[in-house]
Design goal:
alpha+beta, two-stranded antiparallel ribbon
């Protein structure tokens, strides 16, 4: 895949959801010199992004110039009078597009981490234009004729295995983009891609506007049960809004702790209701019509491209291969998960009845009473654990683990290179004495930053380009401790930290010759990150890094034992919350008639599944950024479960050999982490494990019956 094709995939397919600030969008400022966005990066480490020189107003002119330059590069390859060869066509494309790649690396950060009103306005204007540009390249008939000529003669071209795989995948990318269509069909696909780009931007903007709202509490009594550190962060949020009191932002990082600890049931209900109704309030930010338009356009495009449904189109190059295979795995897990939820609800109802609460467990009660059950069953309270999980210590823990497993060394160099936000930390990454990367860590929530957690690559490495220093980032949304106070995180937050760092590890270890073979299928992407979560609660990590933020004492063995004993606690909730979202995603996109009423479809599908009334989807459709802020996870949210099946089976091997076993870690790195997509990922897994993954490991991990 050329860098031009990569940028197109980032715009329409592989990019994580875009975001925009929840304010009235301002008009872009007058154009300024875009040079910082167009010139080669300078400074140490083979050059780094010049964040300190970038202004949003530079992007329009930069887009114009970068597109003009890219067209010239493209034309030089396309119009080469020499007969098409792998070197002058496929390899030439692999070497092209560096300027556009640099520009998109910076633009992606502005969309996701720094989405000011000005950025939002630029995104609305330019997303369709950029889509049209990349469609122009991917549907160019003369370039495709060159690629096809090389492809048709591949058997006699003397290509090695990597070159053959790159050629076949490049040809396939052109075909699935529409290269074989007639001109009328190509024109239609271009128009659809432009319309989708606009719709994705609109969706992300509307959701973020709802997430920027907050419920203001003026009486501290209403916050009964909340930890002091969390209340202090809510007070800081109110202060930032120019208000007096405590502000509960409509984001998961603020909502979840309140639902877990808040004793005020009415406040829990109000906060929960606002959260699950993001994008679904019948106002200017309602996303249902936008979703219906996206679904219509996606299905229309899929049919033109020769696919039965959008799900078949998106899954054409995945490990699962078909929607049916993904559904088979999910429905194998679903009954056991629902059965576990019934047990969990019964346990919670018993606690509520014993306390004389005179309630029936509702969705806004689930986390609150789950904590009570945890305390009763395991004598474990989440609030006991958080004082030992100080954020900086957990960052040190993930670095230490990566060093012990893979020989990666992280040395902080914050302040020596530019960053895009003052709280971003940076680290030099070495392996075997050589610098292999720079790691940017953006941990805290703020206005203009989209919700969730994600990893980003600003620059990869490859043998073809000679680039050896990778630039990557992790982006989280932790609630920062009050002024002068440490940031304490939950076990779930710490798992997220390790999860995203697994993506970073994967990036820093990837060692391929061709850039187009560095990316992996969507349902493999989450596998390395999910595996990395397992080392968080190992005894060695907890002993060294889980230290009380006041006393410095390590986590007591008794507390560790409680955590281990409760490892399968609440797995019904966790599984159903996620799996319902993934099943609805597939059902939504695996149909020839597009859904026109997303709310009704969601409700009817969940009823047919037997969704427990005490739980809501982790991401309801009106706020499902994974699906509707890009093509990224559309018909692909199942991939977390697909990846976890491999993850659980992999961890079973580490447990068998020793969780820090060097030989196993080396084989994992050499076979799966470093090879990108140079070989089929199913075959690579078999080479590592000696067989296909065993789903029983997943059932065992979640505490479900394995028979």
């Amino acid at each position: 895949m050329s860098r031009h094709a990569l940028c197109l995939s980032l715009l329409l397919g592989a990019a994580m959801p875009m975001s925009a600030m929840a304010q009235t969008a301002a008009a872009p400022a007058a154009a300024v010199d875009p040079a910082p966005l167009l010139t080669e990066w300078t400074g140490p480490y083979n050059g780094v992004p010049p964040w300190n020189q970038v202004k949003p107003a530079m992007f329009p002119a930069a887009f114009e110039q970068a597109m003009a330059n890219a067209r010239k590069e493209f034309a030089a390859i396309r119009d080469n009078p020499a007969a098409p060869t792998f070197a002058n066509t496929i390899e030439a494309q692999e070497k092209s597009g560096e300027q556009m790649s640099r520009l998109f690396a910076v633009w992606g950060v502005y969309q996701s981490n720094l989405a000011s009103p000005e950025v939002q306005a630029i995104a609305r204007e330019w997303s369709p234009k950029l889509s049209a540009f990349f469609s122009e390249l991917s549907l160019d008939p003369k370039m495709f004729a060159r690629v096809k000529a090389v492809y048709d003669n591949r058997a006699s071209a003397g290509l090695n295995a990597q070159q053959m795989r790159l050629l076949e995948r490049s040809y396939r990318d052109y075909v699935t983009s529409g290269a074989l269509l007639d001109e009328a069909q190509k024109t239609k696909v271009k128009a659809i891609n432009q319309a989708l780009a606009k719709a994705y931007t609109d969706f992300g903007s509307k959701v973020l506007k709802d997430e920027e709202t907050a419920i203001l509490v003026t009486s501290e009594a209403e916050l009964a049960g909340l930890p002091d550190s969390f209340k202090a962060s809510l007070a800081e949020e109110a202060k930032a809004m120019g208000k007096t009191g405590w502000a509960i932002k409509n984001t998961r990082s603020s909502v979840q702790p309140l639902l877990m600890y808040g004793t005020n049931r009415d406040l829990r209900r109000r906060v929960y209701t606002a959260f699950i109704n993001r994008g679904d309030n019948g106002d200017a930010n309602d996303t249902n019509a936008t979703i219906a338009e996206i679904l219509k356009l996606r299905q229309e495009r899929a049919v033109i491209l020769g696919f039965k449904t959008h799900a078949h189109f998106r899954m054409d190059d995945t490990m699962a291969e078909t929607p049916e295979n993904a559904m088979k795995l999910m429905m194998a897990v679903w009954p056991a998960a629902v059965a576990r939820v019934k047990q969990e609800v019964a346990d919670m109802q018993a606690v509520a009845d014993k306390e004389g609460a005179k309630i029936t467990i509702e969705p806004w009660d689930y986390r609150f009473y789950a904590e009570k059950v945890r305390k009763a069953k395991y004598d474990l309270d989440e609030s006991e654990v958080k004082p030992y999980l100080e954020l900086n210590n957990m960052v040190d823990a993930m670095f230490w683990s990566a060093n012990r497993l893979y020989g990666l060394e992280f040395k902080e160099n914050t302040g020596t290179i530019p960053v895009f936000e003052p709280n971003v930390r940076t680290f030099e990454v070495r392996r075997e004495g050589k610098i292999v990367g720079i790691f940017y860590l953006d941990n805290f929530a703020r206005a203009g930053k989209r919700s969730g957690a994600w990893a980003t690559s600003y620059r990869g490495a490859s043998g073809l380009t000679g680039e050896t220093i990778r630039l990557g980032s992790n982006n989280n949304n932790f609630t920062k401790g009050a002024a002068g106070e440490p940031t304490l995180i939950s076990v779930d937050d710490a798992s997220t930290l390790f999860h995203e760092f697994g993506h970073a590890i994967h990036g820093f270890l990837t060692n391929v010759y061709y850039p187009g073979l560095s990316g992996t299928p969507r349902d493999f992407v989450e596998y390395p990150s999910q595996v990395n979560e397992n080392w968080l609660l190992t005894r060695e990590v907890l002993d060294r890094f889980a230290k009380h933020y006041k006393t410095g004492e390590p986590m007591p063995q008794a507390l560790v034992d409680k955590i281990e004993a409760s490892s399968t606690f609440n797995q019904g909730f966790d599984t159903v919350e996620y799996l319902s979202s993934a099943i609805v995603d597939i059902k939504l996109h695996d149909r020839t008639t597009p859904v026109t009423d997303p709310d009704a479809f969601e409700r009817d599908t969940l009823n047919a599944l037997g969704m427990p009334k005490e739980i809501v989807m982790r991401h309801r459709l009106p706020q499902f950024n994974h699906l509707f802020s890009s093509d990224a996870y559309s018909a692909g949210y199942y991939s977390y479960l697909w990846s976890e099946t491999m993850d659980a089976d992999t961890w079973a091997l580490f447990e068998e050999k020793g969780v820090w076993d060097k030989a196993t870690a080396d084989k994992f790195r050499e076979t799966l982490l470093s090879t990108g997509n140079e070989t089929d990922r199913k075959a690579a897994y078999r080479a590592f494990r000696g067989r296909d993954p065993d789903v029983k490991a997943l059932f065992k991990r979640r505490g479900f019956p394995t028979e």
